[in-house]
Amino acid sequence: MKKLWESVIRFRTWIVNLVLALAVILPDLLNSPEILAVVPAEYQRWIVALAFLINIWLRPRPAVIKTDLEASVSRSRRR
Description:
mainly alpha; 5 helices; transmembrane; membrane
């Protein structure tokens, strides 16, 4: 269970990006003309902006967790 949780933490960027990509692609696959046809008009720009901000905020590489050497090096630099 710990190994599964560690994998989810490390690959959270990939998981969120996959979910966002599916949210954009899935309506088209389900015969909806576009994602914006599914989202109410007053929320469309906010949904797209939020998706971009989440994508920018997350890193495209596996995240560092506190047991990694990289994390311990950065902690020792602060001291």
